[in-house]
Amino acid sequence: MFKKDLRCLKSWWQITHPRPIARNQPLYVSLELTNNCVLRCNGCFTPGQVREIGEMGIANFKKLIDDLSSKQFCGTLILEGGEPLLNEKAVEMVAYAHEKDIKTCIVSNAVLLTPEKVKALIEGGLDILSVSFGSVNHEGYKKYSNTDYFETALQNILNFLDTKLKSGAEKPFFQVTCVEGQMNEVEYKTWMDFFGRLPIENLDYY
Length: 206
Description:
This protein has 206 residues and is an alpha/beta fold. It has helices at 2-16, 58-70, 90-99, 115-124, 138-145, 150-167, 185-196; strands at residues 28-32, 76-80, 103-108, 128-132, 173-178, 202-205.
């Protein structure tokens, strides 16, 4: 996960030329908004975890943001999980961080990336959206995620791209990722060809 996050941030900085990072500050801060997820992906911690399912509350989140803001944090706040959009306050969290001039990145599987959430995230000032999507065919998706959300997630990705284009918004920077070991060479080429035709800023694997 960390290598993927770092590649995402590096790609984004190279394209958008953000302000420099202070030497005495971390490149990013990663927050687990929830340890719950709608998928049950092979190799992920969520299906077999023994921790109680929970989520970060908005009060604790705002306290952390206020603390980062007071220290003039100029890195990026990565909001992940589990599936961070399962936290009903995720959109509000993005907007609050934006108000405090803190850049945000959401790492999602796109299953819950509804049109309403897309609009709210764009308006709330989300800087990066990184979506993990491990196969461009139904059976492959079902095999790695152990769920049947292929059509839902894919349609949500296409809707996001359409909404962003029509809104004229420059952000969020959008990338799609896959897990290197989940596909053979032919499947990976098909994945790259499919997403390579779409207006996506970055494609990556981890």
